[in-house]
Amino acid sequence: MITTTNLSPALDIDAVRAFALVADLASFTRAAQTVGVTQSAISLKIKRLEQRLDARLVERTPRSVRLTDAGAAFLARARDLLAAHDRALAPDDAPRRLTVGFSDHVAGPDLAPLLARMAGFDPALRLDVRIGLSGDLIAAFDAGALDAVVVRRERHRRGGETLFEDGFGWFAAPGYRQSSHEPLRLAMLAAPCGVRAHAIRTLEKAKREWVEAFTGGGVTAIAAAIAAGLAVAPLAQRIAPPGVIDVGPQFGLPSLGSSSAVLHSRVSDPRARAALRALAAAFRGTVAR
């Protein structure tokens, strides 16, 4: 006969998941947003997990959240436990697939770690990622070709979950020179890019002459052009390449204002929805840094 007299209480899987989220996102607030609960609920789960393990796992200050040595040591075991738990509950049908589109002007340099967060949240989830213009991605989403998109808010488009606001500027290499008597040399994505259209409208409203000196097929190409000193580019501050500066004030250029990044989704699978919430929380975290 098997008795349970000497067996220790099992770990609370939800508490372990909460701990892993806090570790990944370095934030109790964003962990709570990911799973749709309050921050106090996450704190309580972590506290109970620490009591169960008889160890302090997380150190929290008003400015930062970091793992203790015990927390860092437990994290790998926590991930193994969560992966085993999710495999045990996974149905026998085909693996879940999530097709997500990212606007090139939203993705930026943080895309790789953001995708890693999604994959780490659910290793069984197969990701299909598309990069493109916001308008094209919205059209594909409306046609049912994409499960979710993260795009710049289009002026005519309603709905979606706002992830963050990005301030825009006119970026160029520090040594870039522009004569006040010459049209502004611009590096932009090809039409129908929404950022391109907004920049052109802003310049024309200010009666500022411009010329398209460089046309790129992606933001990576635009970043290379301005870093090489070829032109000025309208970019979000978050995705401007290292080493460039906002030359708007120096050249007397009109303000480009800000733009919202929004998530549109039609995902119904609970685990895929949870992965998208993890993505949304991680996006907010990159902007808050």
Which features would summarize this protein structure in a list?
11 strands, two-stranded antiparallel ribbon, 289 residues, disordered N terminus, alpha/beta
Can you offer a commentary on this structure?
The strands form three sheets. Strands 3, 4, 5, 6, 9, 10 and 11 form a seven-stranded mixed sheet that branches. A two-stranded antiparallel sheet has the order 1-2. The model is unreliable at 1-5 (pLDDT under 50). The protein has 289 residues and is α/β, with parallel strands linked by helices. It is elongated. The relative contact order is 0.16. It has helices at residues 13-25, 28-35, 39-53, 69-89, 104-107, 111-121, 134-142, 194-205, 219-227, 248-251, 270-288; strands at 58-60, 65-67, 97-103, 126-132, 148-152, 161-172, 184-189, 210-216, 233-236, 245-246, 258-265. Strand 7, helix 8 and strand 8 (210-216) form a beta-alpha-beta unit.
